Amino acid sequence: MLEYKLAFRNLFGAGLRTWLNVTVLSIAFVIIIFYNGMLDGWNRQARNDTKAWECGSGQIWHHLYDPYDQFSIIDAHAKVPSEYKPDIDRDLITPVLIVQATAYPGGRLVNVLLKGITPSQAILELPTAILGPRSDSSYADGYIPAIIGTRMAQSARLKKGDNILVRWRDVNGTFDALEITVASIYKTNVPTIDNGQIWIPLEKLREMTSMPEEATYMVMGSAYKEILNAQGDDKHLQVWIYKDEKALFKELDDVIAAKKGGSKIIYGLLLAIALLAIFDTQVLSIFRRQKEIGTYIALGMTRLRVVSIFTIEGSAHSLLAILLGSIWGIPLLMLIQRTGIPMPSSADQAGLAIGDSISPFYSAGMILSTILLVVISSTIVSYLPTRRISKMKPTDALRGKMI
Amino acid sequence: MDNELIVRLENVTKRFPAGKTEFTALSNINLTFGKGEFAGLVGPSGSGKTTLLNIIGSLDTPTEGKAIVLGKDINSLSHKEAAALRNYGIGFIFQTYNLLPVYSVYDNVEFALLLQTMGSTQRKKAVMEALDWVGLADRASSRPSTLSGGECQRVAIARAMVKRPQLVLADEPSANLDSNNSHNIVQMMKRLNKELNTTFIFSTHDQKVMQYLERVISLKDGKVESDETGRNNYAGI
Predict the structure, then answer these.
(1) Mutual orientation of helices B105-114 and B149-161 as an angle, nearest 10°?
(2) In 3D, which of A29, A18, A21, A43 has the Cα closest to residue A332?
(3) What is the ipTM of this complex?
(4) Do A210 and A152 sit in the same domain of this protein?
(5) Measuring CA to CA, which of A21, A137, A290, B75 is 20 to 30 A from A60?
(6) How far is B86 from chain A (nearest CA, A)?
(7) Is residue A353 within 8 Å of A343, Cβ to Cβ?
(8) Which residue spans within A71-227 are E strands per DSSP?
């Protein structure tokens, strides 16, 4: 206890030097939390958006389906097993059929994926209700509504109400073509359900491709997942493969992990600068305070206790930095969390979900681990120079001739 | 241990490395100091006064010979045991006062007691009593930087005396003081020596200090040149 008392007395007694170090360290501390908060916030937002717009609570894929292999799409379709029909009817699962096609907006040629989805589905946030037929029965009047995302609309120069000619091959390989109408343009943070994609009614696509009752994958709603978790899936999946959220978010997790790796370099440098200041202060302290060290020893203090005083003194910088960082950092970080950081429109070119702005998310675990990182690293750099004390001769220290 | 014997030095020799050779700072010193002595080591610079004080104070060890201080053989003490000996048995007064600059006068004096297991009430009483001895009770909250040299040395004396050590070692205590302050400081120490029966050993080459000493040991080139006892020119103090 005495060591803590003395260390803090010395620390406050050092005045401006202490507060300069504490300020630098508090900046590093707050920036580390901000950086991590941004990435965690992006991760959460991307997960939430991807889940809401694309992945649902899990998916069941045709075994040949690979979203990153265009060639797999031709064969990745099969009849939906009859066991799933009641769940589909209850909107616990929604099937999606994918077909490669070519669109001709304004006479230009654009490769697209035609995606069929049930208009009445409520599992994904896609505004599919507008894909319903004008009459209750069919699309017999030749009107085929389609929804596209803003990215697709921008790249193909399409707007609501435009008609586009699309050409595709049916299940037998025969080319066919029809005009579809852009019924709505949706805005989403998830580019993977937007770029190069045209969503049309599932039954119409099945009819166009002669693939009745077929799908490429099925999206599970949260209610179905609860049933799955409670009862297990006793359905015979055959050519279908269950993909849980972990598998579906793997790419996102990998990108976030890579981003975190990159940001660690940045805040590692910041922390290094702050720790260097503490290290420098410690070295200077020991050099300038040799007589004080000698006096401590002459008055009956063991070298180990003197080492403890200096180590605590150095590491106490981090405690004060956390305190100071909290004073100015908490209001600032909360403000940023509330307002969010605006992201440029080109930010989602990487193909990952990025909103117009990202709100940082500060978890207790992240803050605690940052505090531990700062305290432990500052304790280590505080201790390293003090090892010199344990090797010194008190007589040299008293004369100021230790170093 | 002999109750009256505080320090016993037997053939104490201290050598320091000096390049490829060795420099002999002390050579075959044989001395004893009894309880309540007011003695001084005198001699020119480099005669070995401070080295001898450092050995007596367990801050250093002899290269050869034996130094028994308060019944402890300095050579055989661990760092921890030596620290305990200094903490409980020995007070130090330095030429440059060596006060801790960020502490108040009170804190500086209290520091010596913080290393001991003493209750806060008892500690406060002891500190204030020590400050009374040196006439600085009213400056208890001052910082050393606001004190004069004489006052700083009085704080150092209070710090050395507050734990009531059996032995006080003063290394050139008047070297940085003017004539008046030198007299005052030494008179103060002499008074404490009489009142508390504490053994004082000085190192000095200051004539003003020497005239108060009851015993003067002259050192030259690391050897005892003379040991004059029975002096007491200021018995009335």
Answers:
(1) 20
(2) A29
(3) 0.89
(4) yes
(5) A137
(6) 5
(7) no
(8) 78-79, 93-104, 110-117, 145-149, 163-169, 175-186, 197-201, 214-215, 217-220
Q: Which of residues 46-105 of A touch B (CB under 8 A)?
A: none
Select the CATH number that applies to the domain covering B37-54+79-228 from these four: 3.40.190.10, 3.40.50.300, 3.30.43.10, 3.20.20.70.
Answer: 3.40.50.300
- A374 within some domain: yes
Identify from A290, A299, A305, A389 which residue to disrupt to test chain B contact, counting B C-beta atoms within 10 A and taking the largest count: A299
Alpha-carbon gap: A277 to the closest alpha carbon of chain B (Å)? 21
A294 and A235 in one domain?
Answer: no
- Beta-carbon separation of A299 and B112 below 8 A: yes
Nearest to B84 among A298, A300, A303 (CB): A300
Q: Which residue range forms the structural domain that includes residue A361?
A: 2-52+252-398
A393 inside 8 A of chain B by CB: yes
Whether residues A348 and A203 share a domain: the answer is no
Residues A210 and A274 in one domain: no
Which amino acid is located at A332 in the chain? L
For Cα atoms B39, B41, B45, give the angle at the middle one, nearest 5 degrees: 160
Q: Please state, in angstroms and rounded to a whole number, the distance separating the CA atoms of residues B146 and B149.
A: 10
> What is the separation, in whole angstroms, between the first and last Cα of chain A?
29
Do A238 and A263 reside in the same domain of the chain? Answer: no
The pLDDT-based confidence of B235 (bands split at 50, 70, 90) is very low
Q: In what order do the strands lie in the sheet with B5-18?
A: B21-34, B5-18, B64-69, B72-73
Other residues' Cβ atoms within 10 Å of the Cβ of residue A81: 17
Structure-token pair, residue A208: 């166009």
Write the DSSP string, A286-349.
Answer: HHHTHHHHHHHHHTT--HHHHHHHHHHHHHHHHHHHHHHHHHHHHHHHHHHHHH-EE--GGGGG
pLDDT digits (tens, 9 = 90+) for B181-205: 888 888 888 988 999 899 999 998 8
Cβ within 8 Å, pair A298-B86: yes
Q: Is residue A15 part of a domain?
A: yes
Q: pLDDT of B72-87, one tens digit each?
A: 999 999 989 999 999 9
Question: pLDDT digit string (tens) for A143-196?
Answer: 889 999 999 999 999 999 999 999 999 888 889 999 999 999 999 988 889 989
Using CB atoms, pick whichever of A10, A295, A302 lies closest to residue B79.
Answer: A302
A403 domain-assigned: no
Same domain, A30 and A133: no
Domains: count for chain A? 2
What CA–CA distance (Å, rounded) separates A93 from A391?
72
Report the predicted TM-score, pTM, of the whole model to 2 decimal places: 0.71
Of B8, B92, B23, the residue nearest B63 (C-alpha): B23
Of A226, A243, A260, the last residue of a domain is: A243
Domain ranges of chain B: 37-54+79-228
Q: Which of A5, A292, A398 sits opposite B100 (nearest CB)?
A: A292
Q: What is the pLDDT of residues B148-166, one digit of tens each?
A: 999 999 999 999 999 999 9
Of A13, A291, A395, the CB nearest to B98: A291
pLDDT of residue A267: 77
DSSP state of A119: T
Between the alpha carbon of residue A390 and those of residues A301, A393, B75, B90, the distances in Å are 12, 9, 19, 22
User: CA A198, A200, A202: angle at the middle one, nearest 5?
Assistant: 130
The SS3 call for residue A368 is helix
* Per-residue pLDDT, A140: 62
Question: Could you tell me the pLDDT band of residue B234, with boundaries at 50, 70 and 90?
Answer: very low
CA distance A291 to chain B (A): 7
